[in-house]
Every structure is written in C-alpha cells, then in structure tokens.
Amino acid sequence: MTAYPSLHMIINGEKVAGGSRRTHTVVNPATGESLGELPLADAADLDRALEVAAEGFAIWRKSTPQERAAVLQGAARLMVERADDLARIATMEEGKPFAEARIEVMMNVGLFNFYAGECFRLYGRELVRPEGMRSTVRWEPVGPVAAFAPWNFPLGNPGRKLGAPIAAGCSVILKSAEETPASALGVLQCLLDAGLPPQVAQAVFGVPDEVSRHLLASPIIRKLSFTGSTVVGKHLAKLAADNMIRTTMELGGHGPVLVFSDADVDKALATSVGGKYRNCGQVCVSPTRFIVEESVFERFRDGFIEGAKAQVVGNGLDPATTMGPMANARRPEAMDRLIGDAVAKGAKLGTGGERIGNQGFFYAPSVLSEVPLDAAIMHEEPFGPVAIINPYKGEEAMIAEANRLPYGLAAYAWTSDVQRQRRLAAQLEAGMVGINSHMIGGADAPFGGVKWSGHGSEDGPEGVKACMVLKAVHEG
Ligand code: NAD
C-alpha cells in the first residue's frame, strides 16, 4: 500500500521545507485524520522561485521541439509506471474513488503526449512581400507563468497547468491547492525525472492570497493561469491587470442539462446520474440544473432519485465505492446551507440533504426538485452532490433557463430531433456543449468557458498557444 509522502516545495529542483516556515495540515477527507504538514512559502521562497523562473525561461525558450517533446513523453511514461501510487495519493488527499483518480493519471498521459506533438506545430507564417523584403509572423513563449490549480482534480489540474507552458517553451511556478499537494508534487516529479531542467518548473504552496499577490506583483511573471471560483478569478484578474499579465481563467459553472421528451430518457438518466455524482459533484462542468420537459419530468426525477440512492458512498480506496467524501470541511457546510435554503423556499427534497457518519466529510447523494428561482442554489454553483430537477414547457423556455445565469462553462442537451440539436448547439451560451453525451473534453479539445466562467482555453492546440505571444518581423 502506498505511503503518503513527506511534504515540501520544489524550488530549483530542491525539496524545500522546515525552518521557521508556517505549515498547513493536509487532511484525509474520508477519515478527518492528518496526512502531513505542508510547508508554506515565505516571501524569500517566492523571490527565489521568481529568480529561478527567470533563469528557467532563459533556458527553455531556446529548447528545441524535440527536447520539449522528449520531456513530455518521458513524463507521460513515468506517470504510467507510477499510476497506481499517484492515484492512491490523490484519493487519500481528495477523497475521490481510486478508479476516478487513475483516470486522471491517464488523462495527463494523453495530454502530455498530445502536447509533445504540438511542440512541432508551433510555427507561424511568412507574408507575401516584394522581392528583397521578408515578413514573418512568429509564435514565441510568453515568459514565466504563474499557475494556480485547485484541489478537485489533484493530478489533472497540475498536469494541465504544467504541460502547456512546458510545451510552449515557458517556465512555470505552480501553486497547486494546499489541500492536495502530494499529487501535484508527484506530477512535477515525473517531469523532472524525465529530464526537465529544474529551473523550468517549480512548486510552491502558501497562503493563496499572499502567493498570488507576491507573484503577480513581479515583473518576471508574464502569464497567469487560474482554475477556481469566479470570485477569486475576478480578484486575480484585477491583480494581473496592474502588470498587464495575460490570463487564462477557468472558473465556475452551473451546468444546465436540457432533457426533451423526444430524448432517450434512460440514456440521459444513466449518463446524468453518473456525471452528477462523479467526484461528489465537485467538478466545474458537473451537470447541475436539469431542465426537463414537462411530459418526462416525473419519470426523469424518479429515476434520478433511484440512481442517487444506488450510489455506494465510502472511502475512495474501497473498490466498491462509487462516491467518496467531499474534499474539505467547507463543502458539506455549503451543501447544508444551499439545500436548507432551497427546502425553506419550497423545493422538494427527493433524497439526501444530510451528512453521512461522523468522520470525514461525507454527504448523501441529493436530489432537489421544483426548486423556486429565489433559492440561492438556482444562482450559486453548488459544487457538490446535488441535482436540481425542474419541469419546463417547450424549447424556448428551456433555452432561456439554460442561458439565465452569468455562467457559461458546460451545457448539455438530450434530444433526438436533429434540427433542434443544431439550434441548441448555436443558442446555448457555453464554452462546451454536449449533445446526447456528457463527454465534452479530450486532450485535443479546447476546455474553457464564456461569460463569468472565464476566458481562454486549456487543452488542445489552444492550450499551448495560450502560453505564447505573436511577433511580426519585417525585414527590408
Ligand atoms: P476558493 O474560491 O477559496 O478556492 C478555489 C481555489 O482557488 C483553491 O484552489 C484556492 O487555493 C485558490 N485560491 C483562493 N484564493 C486564492 C488567491 N487569492 N490566489 C490564488 N489562489 C487562490 O474556494 P474553495 O472553498 O476552495 O472552493 C469553493 C469554490 O471554488 C467552489 O464552489 C467552486 O465554485 C470553485 N472551484 C472551482 C473549481 C474549478 O474547477 N473551476 C475547482 C475548485 C473550486
């Protein structure tokens, strides 16, 4: 069985811990027990990381596509070798079932291999000019990147945040969530063991607001990549603006799912229940608001309640578990508040709505229906294991409800009408739309949102280009 590793930062390839640094206790959300003490960066650590990142950029911007691809492919191979250990550590820190954590490892493997190929496709273009003149448009790495990753995908988020800058020729300072540090360190270690120069990618932890203020105030950082809540994203965008730092913002969502009466309702149900309780609903693209056509509403709601009750809630290391605990103590508190408020305002609680057991952060798979518009959960991202199922009349009203919120990350729809599928694809305000499918990602596909869900993309060729800038060179 994998032991939980000792915790540290990685600055210039060195393990940094101890001294007079403050620490943060990392907790196993299934048991509430302490896993270890994480050292938090002080100002001197951050200054050192910045200085090293500047050196790293000077080295890596000159690297060849072959060198970058070899590191990414090597790290992918190491992740495959270490997959079980990485996944177990992620489950210990975050709670998700081991099988889900293992999928995260394999997603990183796919992404790193895809990015390895992208390293060779970062070419620009030559413009047509009179004889004797030459004009070229080139892509160049933007510079040192500050990347802040949250806890919900302890391996996948750091994979995205590290892979893209490394493919682009940038250096990167990663601050992954203090709740899930060992997973992030495991991913970075694969890159370092695959030959990445230690100056190129580093990992710090700290008090998030201190770290972000410090790094974004530095002229060394040229790009911020953040995944997290909209409120923090807006705050960081303002800090970044002061130094005109480019940003990629992958923020919150409130995933609408439109279910029409002509849909394959059984398939919609099976996919939606699985999607809703994946990672305990703590997923930015989680299906959240089920907007169901009246005539199939009762069937859909009752089927969902049955599906919720069939979830096996337990420790993610138990192979029978289909849903683990929530990742931290804040989440069950948010669930109690949002579900309590909805019920007080007249919503029907089909199942769940309560914590399970007295250790860790377990919460029952929950279903709310007929939730009034004035309930907070109709506006706030629940980020937990609760489905909101409401009946609607007709396509226009359903699309209007889907687009009602300022969020626009993922939207889903279930219908067999081909013309309607096209209308939905055009009219749903979201960065990613799934029609008769909830598979909306892939190493080759841009992942990102519109409106308050942020801007810019991760993954796909766009994820690498987001770490690059254009230069036009005109030679006479
Ligand atoms: P939070 O908003 O405080 O933190 C979200 C993430 O941002 C964490 O990883 C945190 O370390 C980081 N963060 C917070 N303040 C920061 C700062 N000033 N500088 C840099 N990083 C900072 O909330 P939380 O309690 O951890 O999570 C709750 C909410 O966050 C959820 O309801 C959800 O909306 C959102 N969230 C979204 C995603 C996503 O994938 N988009 C992931 C995790 C959390």
TrEMBL record:
<dbReference type="InterPro" id="IPR015590">
    <property type="entry name" value="Aldehyde_DH_dom"/>
</dbReference>
<feature type="domain" description="Aldehyde dehydrogenase">
    <location>
        <begin position="20"/>
        <end position="473"/>
    </location>
</feature>
<dbReference type="InterPro" id="IPR016163">
    <property type="entry name" value="Ald_DH_C"/>
</dbReference>
<dbReference type="InterPro" id="IPR016161">
    <property type="entry name" value="Ald_DH/histidinol_DH"/>
</dbReference>
<keyword id="KW-0560">Oxidoreductase</keyword>
<comment type="similarity">
    <text>Belongs to the aldehyde dehydrogenase family.</text>
</comment>
<dbReference type="InterPro" id="IPR016162">
    <property type="entry name" value="Ald_DH_N"/>
</dbReference>
<dbReference type="Pfam" id="PF00171">
    <property type="entry name" value="Aldedh"/>
</dbReference>
<protein>
    <submittedName>
        <fullName>NAD-dependent succinate-semialdehyde dehydrogenase</fullName>
    </submittedName>
</protein>
<dbReference type="InterPro" id="IPR050740">
    <property type="entry name" value="Aldehyde_DH_Superfamily"/>
</dbReference>
